[in-house]
Amino acid sequence: MKKAVITIKDIADALGLSSSTVSRALQDSYKISAPVRKRVNEYAKLHNYRPNLMAQSLKNRKSRCIGVSLSSIPNNFFAEVISGIESVAYEKGYKIILTQNFESYEREVTNIEHLSWYAADGLLVSLSAETTDLTHIKKVHQNGMPIVFFDRVSNQIKTHKVVADNKGGAYKATAHLLEQGFKNIAIVSTSKELSMAIERFEGYEAALAEKGIETDEAYIKYCPHGEMLIEEVEIAIRELLEMAIPPDAIITASDRISINTISILKKLGIRIPDQMAIAGFSNFSSPEIIEPALTTIKQPAFEMGKKAIELLIHLIESKRPVSRFEKIVLPTELQIRKSSLPPSN
Q1: Rounded to two decimals, what is the model's pTM?
Q2: Residue in 179, 247, 172 with CA at minimum distance from that of residue 216
Q3: Is the domain of 305 the same as that of 295?
Q4: What is the pLDDT of residues 110-159, one digit of tens each?
Q5: How many domains would you assign to the chain?
Q6: What SS3 class is residue 344?
Q7: Are residues 276 and 308 in the same domain?
Q8: CB 121 within 8 A of CB 53
Q9: How far apart are CA 336 and CA 90, in angstroms?
Q10: Residue 99 to residue 148: CA distance in whole angstroms
Q11: Same domain for 113 and 203
């Protein structure tokens, strides 16, 4: 025989409370005392109570959908972020609507508009490489849409932000290359407008300054379309190689830039790491299968997605206005492999 589903009324009758008190206690309402909330939640857990999400959606006029605006789903980094988002969404009874901007500002504007039209309860946003004007995001935020930024963030909107330690990661990669004896270190990054590109440059510059090395602007290359065009990466690499004193090492700022850089150098007959060392921000699941094995700055992508949606759901479900916001900085890890070691090693 199928086991009967326990309801809010069942819990209320068992504990001698009103249904409204039980409902508020299950929603962790501040209007209900802590001991009562504890008693109700313990009873609900013991008897395997599950909320009727459809009924809640109709009553609260909530869609239980969260919109996500990001660059590109096939990107290894964002694929891991999505996994982190989904892990919490599933547990909390939310559905995810994913949109890709492919580093296009116009597409991002359209995607944000569509997500607001579809009545998403909140938005998780990672900005496109072309985005400098946030009017489209400010508009939906001012209309009451909860928003949390992740990875590519902005200070123009007061809300939660979740990022990797981009500055620390770039610092560790640069310091590592200097320790290996490389002297002329270049960096090939995404759009210079992006927050993470700015932070990575700061880490790179700090490591050089620590060794008394002045930053050479000629060694700094940006890809305005944020890695989407291999032609931009190839132009950057060729310009570096044509310098009077070309770099002996390159820090690459993403999975695609790393792969494209290695491909271009091999096509040009440049041996890695004998003639050019490489260290890249990357979330490849198996960077050791690249030849030579790629030194990476590993970012906590899964944890980023998980934390971002936890903060967003808190904003969505909060019974009181939220006025204090956090910028969560998650640690990065330098994983050393052959591509950044001198031939003697």
Answers
A1: 0.80
A2: 247
A3: no
A4: 999 999 887 789 999 999 999 999 999 999 999 899 999 999 999 999 99
A5: 3
A6: coil
A7: no
A8: no
A9: 35
A10: 15
A11: no
- 345 within some domain: no
CATH code assigned at 126:
3.40.50.2300
Tokens linked to 259? 């792969």
* Strand extents, DSSP E, the chain: 65-70, 95-100, 122-125, 147-150, 161-164, 185-189, 220-222, 249-252, 277-282, 295-298, 327-330, 333-335
Q: How confident is the model at residue 59 (pLDDT cuts 50, 70, 90)?
A: very low
Q: Which two tokens stand for residue 317?
A: 């479900």
For 38, how many CA atoms within 13 A lie in the half-sphere containing its CB? Answer: 3
Strands 161-164 and 327-330: parallel
Element (H, E) at 238: helix 230-241
By residue range, what is the domain housing residue 36? 8-51
Residues 91 and 157 in one domain: yes
Average pLDDT value for the chain: 90
Label residue 52 by pLDDT band (50, 70, 90). Answer: low
